[in-house]
Design brief:
314 residues; alpha+beta; Alpha-Beta Plaits; Chromosomal Replication Initiator Protein Dnaa, Chain: A; 2 domains; five-stranded mixed beta sheet; 5 strands
Length: 314
């Protein structure tokens, strides 16, 4: 079954949530939370987005971000993959840490900015962890109260969209009579906004879907150049790119990994990949499928795959 397409554009606001697989905890210590925030900061530097609010709970997290490029999936792939590798290596585990794909809701900031940030900051209160949001360390609420960035949230950018000063924002958040869940107003599972906003975004989504073949390889064509994939693999194994492409000496793990990623992350056919590696199409297919099977059984090989995957800015 094809995945539903996410509307990705510059200047869009998204509420993001991602949960632990099987509702398992994703943070077991303060060190884990700090490491996740560090990856979040790195992602901001790499993918050029603004972070308006966040909250790290034990088995899930909330982000409210604004893109400057149509690259939401690349942002989230980097964050979740990087943290998963860290967590698995630290605990000598393998496999998924997060439950499926992250969930994203496209938000009309002019209508829902204050309400959505309040909803995010009140998560630990609703969960019974604290009785007041300022007592919870792992959210952006303290940065809002202090009126300066915490190194993670972009508080100056926040002030441009928040329709009240930060003093009144505190009263707004803690007013016990007003704390509705804005996500109850989400339309079609992925848009939060007024009627005009919803119609505009649905029209934009329809236009994008009609202009591309999202059901097949064109959905990922040219996301990464095959040469960039070969270079990333050669950097990891510290060997020449030409050795990856043309050497027939065993072991052939580097070549197999490169072929595996090129098949997954480009629109190239087996025949086209074969030209790069001087291989027949059938051999290309066997190399990729053989590596995929081995990686599922070999924890070390799977870790290598995941670490290389994390290097791609996709």
């Amino acid at each position: 079954m094809a995945r539903p397409y996410r509307l990705q554009a510059e200047g869009c606001f998204y509420h993001i949530t991602s949960r632990g697989d099987g509702h398992q905890a994703i943070y077991l210590s303060d060190k884990d939370r700090n490491k996740f925030l560090a990856y979040l900061v790195t992602a901001k530097e790499r993918f050029k987005f603004y972070l308006h609010a966040y909250c790290l709970m034990s088995n899930h997290y909330h982000l409210f971000l604004e893109t400057t490029q149509p690259n939401l999936s690349r942002i989230m792939q980097y964050i979740n993959t990087a943290y998963t590798i860290y967590s698995n290596v630290k605990r000598n585990k393998s496999g998924h840490l997060f439950q499926g794909r992250f969930k994203s809701v496209l938000v009309e900031a002019d209508s829902y900015f204050a309400e959505l940030t309040r909803y995010i900051h009140l998560n630990p209160v609703r969960a019974g962890i604290v009785d007041s949001p300022e007592k919870y360390r792992w959210s952006s609420y303290q940065a809002y109260l202090q009126g300066r960035g915490d190194g993670v949230v972009d508080i100056d950018r926040v002030k441009q969209f928040l329709d009240m000063d930060l003093k009144h924002y505190r009263q707004f958040v803690q007013d016990p009579k007003i704390s509705p869940n804005p996500l109850k107003n989400v339309y079609a599972g992925f848009i939060l906004g007024g009627v005009k906003f919803i119609k505009d975004k649905l029209s934009q989504l329809q236009a994008e879907v009609e202009s591309r073949d999202f059901a097949h390889k064109r959905a990922i064509k040219n996301i990464i150049e095959p040469q960039a994939i070969i270079k990333a693999v050669s950097d990891y194994f510290k060997i020449y790119t030409e050795d990856i492409r043309y050497s027939k000496k065993r072991p052939l793990e580097a070549k197999q990994i490169a072929i595996y990623f090129i098949r997954r992350k480009t629109g190239l056919t087996n025949a086209q990949i074969g030209v790069l590696f001087r291989m027949k199409p059938q051999a290309v297919s066997m190399a990729a499928l053989g590596f995929e099977k081995k990686a599922e059984q070999d924890h070390k090989l799977k870790s290598i795959r995941d670490e290389i995957d994390c290097r791609f800015e996709v």
